[in-house]
Amino acid sequence: MKGCLLLPLLLLGTVSALYLEKDAPHLDGPETQEDPSQDLEGSGGQEGELSLCGEVLESGGEEAEDAQDDVGDSDPDDLDEAVQCPKEEETVQLPASSECKGCRYRMVLTPRKFKNAQRVCRRCYRGNLASIHSLNVNYSIHRLTVTTNQAQVWIGGFIRGWFFWRKYRWTDGSSWNFTYWARGQPKFGRGHCITLCTRGGRWRRAPCRRRLPFVCSY
Question: Looking at the record, which segments are called Disordered (predicted)?
Answer without folding.
Answer: 25-80
